[in-house]
Amino acid sequence: MRCFLLALSLCVVSCGDDAVSPLMWRVEAQGASAPSYLLGTIHIGVSARDELPSSVWDAFARSSSLVEEAEIRFIDQQEYLQLAALPGSDTLDALLPAPIWTQLVALLSNVPQARLRSLRPWAVSSALYNTLVPAVEGMDLTLLNEADNTQKSLVLLEPWQDQVKALNQVALKDDLAGLEDLVANHALYRDRLADLMDRYRAGDADEVWRLAPDAGAVAPTGTPAFDTFIRKRTQAWLPTVQQQIDGGGAFIAVGFGHVLGSDGLVQVLQSKGYTVTRVE
């Protein structure tokens, strides 16, 4: 939760070496002009350009539209900082234990302390998470750019501001506790994220789902954070997702937290009568 694509005739982007088994499903609707595809992405640490296999890029090439969570390429920094700012006169250095603040400043030495003081814990956690994984272009960004390059229509499921507002609904005390744990145990989280990314590359959906909460990638099922940031958002997207599948030819790429599990799109779409088949 704290963490915030194709060879077209082999010449636009180089596809992966097929080492990755994608978390991707073919979705068929009665009367649709073509099948659609559902890809569960991981937002950090895995390169779509270099690691996703040809099966993903082939499905992308056959699709006429890209459906993504939000447009992340044109986020206004000032608006983001305002939305991610701590409420009232609170400052992060005053809210955190002094040793944790000192360690955080050292871990994020490239971020001005004045900015760190002003941000909500989840925003700082996001910055810290990005230091714990390989620095690669995120899957979501790669797909957005390739949709432009290949002139696919783009369908967005929500404004990026809604993602920030959902994060802001997490109780401040819980948000602080999460950041404290991440700072104090950042080496452990680095190892957990590495394990999660390995299981993602292997296409092991069950293990990805099992490991994700301990790695901080998805809030535990049944918690208020999961309900707010995962379940309710997935439900809100469903009418648009179904409309795109019913029309045919959609490539739907959203975080794996919205794809796996009993509340995820795979099971929800199956329950609504769509034929959903894993693509190897």
Write structural notes for this entry.
Helix 7 packs parallel to helix 10 and helix 11 runs antiparallel to helix 12 (205-215). Helices cover 50% and strands 11% of the residues. The protein starts with 23 loop residues before the first strand and ends with a strand. The protein is α/β, with parallel strands linked by helices. The protein has a six-stranded mixed sheet, with helices on both faces. The model is unreliable at 1-18 (pLDDT under 50). The chain has one domain (24-279). A hairpin with a 7-residue loop joins strand 1 (24-28) and strand 2 (36-41). The chain is built from 14 helices and six strands.
Topology, element by element:
Blueprint lengths: L23 E5 L7 E6 L6 H4 L2 H9 L2 E4 L8 H7 L8 H4 L2 H10 L5 H6 L2 H9 L9 H11 L3 E4 L3 H9 L3 H13 L1 H17 L2 H11 L8 H24 L2 E6 L9 H7 L3 E5 L1
Parallel strand pairs: 2-5, 3-4, 3-5
Antiparallel strand pairs: 1-2, 1-6
Give the overall shape, derived from the CA principal axes.
Answer: globular
- Going across the biggest sheet, name each strand in turn: 4-3-5-2-1-6
Question: How many domains make up the coordinates?
Answer: 1
Distance between the termini: 27 Å
> Mind describing the biggest β-sheet?
6 strands, mixed
Salient structural properties:
single chain, 280 residues, alpha/beta, six-stranded mixed sheet, 14 helices, 11% strand, globular, disordered N terminus
Give the gist of this structure.
Strand 1 and strand 2 form a beta hairpin.
